[in-house]
Amino acid sequence: MWSEDIYAALPVALQNVAVSLQGARLRAVRYRSASFRETARILERNERLSLTALKELQFAAFRELVQHCFTHSPFYRRLWRSRGLHPDEIRSFGDLARIPIVRKQDLRAHTEEFFTEKTLRRMTTVHTSGTTGSPLTVRFSNEDIGRRYAFLERCRRWAGVRIGQRRATFTGRNLVGARQPHVPFWRHNWPGRQLLFSSYHLAPANLPAYVNTLEAFQPEIIDGYPSSIHAVADHILRCGRVHSIHPQAILVSAETVLPHQRDTIETAFRARLYDQYSSSEGAPFISECRNRRMHVHLDSGLVEILDAEGNPAAPGQAGEMVVSSFTTQVVPLLRFAIGDTAIASRETDACPCGLPFPVIEAIVGRVDDVLCTPDRGLVGRLDTVFKGLPNSIVEAQIVQTSAEIIVLRVVPDRSRYRPEHTRQLVRQMRSRLGQVVAIKVEEVSEIPRSANGKIRSVINLCPPHLYDPELPVTTPIRQTTELSSADHRESLR
Most Cβ neighbours (<10 Å): which of 13, 312, 348, 431? Predict the structure, then answer.
């Protein structure tokens, strides 16, 4: 296909042709392969199994993955031999802890040694976003892609939608050339019945055009980044155009969806939002059912939630996610620390939806999105402070810049904003972060997106403090207002 430079130089009409040609190619690879059809058939069958049967199936698949890695991946074979470990010694889930955990820096430093196939022709190369400062490049075979899209189709099926329905997607792809400062900020994928919207041009002045285009297109599915969809939904509510767009479901991924985002999106579109977790590297799938519970697809892989000592986290406790994927054969993930945190649930917590898959309480976010304060230690799940966010604040972001300073960035709606609205957020933060750390407030015109259009609501710029408070702190960014615990001046004035 055309390079990005050539694409950017094309007129809009030809960019639509380019997007459609690529869409046709991807549709064939994703949905018309034998691996997609066979996996989709198996997944429907698995939904009728008991939890016990699913766990037996999961462990059998895990042992196959272990043998595959040892036989075909030089990295895993060398790692295991250095520990005196052989696949035959993995006989039950109790042996899991004997297998060494692999980190992202291992994959980055030894990428070629991970490959299980020497011939990489006809492979799809995927670049991860690197929003945590750790970008990676991995490859998938067509069979890998077919398997993974069968799981994605299961997520859609749980949401009551399917392949082929008219779809509006808010993407991190660079759809619009730098020379085009005006509408349209969207491109057509005609074979996929898909309209792709740029996540980089959601400025207030452009939002009416986004809404007008969505009204004309009337998607049956809206999917993509929750922060981007939320920006459009918030505009719909502000201008009183509720229910002018009639999707059957909203499907979000790639970011932690916050309570106020969910409320705004569901109110604006009068449709249920379904959250879904996987990763560019190929992590197992976790997705939401109609009862808003996050189910782990046991047949897609193994998800461990581990505490700081490497033991399974207790129910209700946040821990590091370590994943093993059954859908990534070329660059296999075996006990791979994906860089995200989650909260474990009790295994007895059955879901009323009737699905046999176990649930987790929540995906918290990236490891470096967990903050650390002197009197509270590690603090996760800060998304809850945004619940009930006043509609005078368009967006907000929490950034830890040092061990002693946390910044609250707010984008105010000048026509409605009052200082007490920020004070409400700061009080919520203070109740979770303790009385020692200083909270500084900064008014900004927008919250910056990452390189692929995502927005992060909670960021820790000094993750070493999570492990060693004695390490030197990073230099704080510029703030406009300091809110210290000493004087409790929790105000923008």
Answer: 312
Q: Is the pLDDT of residue 270 over 80?
A: yes
Give the pLDDT mean for 274-301.
Answer: 93
> Is there a domain that residue 159 lies in?
yes
Q: How would DSSP label each residue in 298-328?
A: GGGEEEEEE-TTSSBPPTT-EEEEEEEESS-
Global pTM reads 0.76
Tokens 């992590």: give the residue. 283
Average pLDDT over residues 407-425: 85
Q: Please enumerate in sequence order all residues whose Cβ is within 8 A of that of 312, keeping only pairs 6 or more positions apart, or say none.
A: 304, 305, 306, 319, 344
Supply the range of the domain harboring residue 379: 370-483
Per DSSP bridges, beta strands 301-306 and 294-296 are unpaired
Contact indicator for 444, 409 with CB cutoff of 8 Å: yes
CATH code for the domain of 394: 3.30.300
CB atoms inside a 10 Å sphere around CB 190: 14
Q: Is residue 469 part of a domain?
A: yes
What are the distances in angstroms from CA 489 to CA 334, 385, 438? 49, 19, 10
Domain boundary among 317, 352, 367: 367
pLDDT at position 475: 31
Give backbone dihedrals phi and psi of 261, rounded to 5 degrees, phi first. -65, -45
User: Where do runs of H (alpha helix) occur along 246-392?
Assistant: 259-269
Say yes or no: 272 and 375 in one domain: no
Number of domains the chain contains:
2
Q: Are 134 and 105 in contact (CB under 8 A)?
A: yes
CATH for 341: 3.40.50.12780
Residues 26-41: what's their mean pLDDT? Answer: 94
Q: Are residues 244 and 154 in the same domain?
A: yes
Residue with tokens 């549709």: 27
How do the residues of the chain divide into helix, strand and coil, expressed in percent and rounded to 5?
35, 20, 45
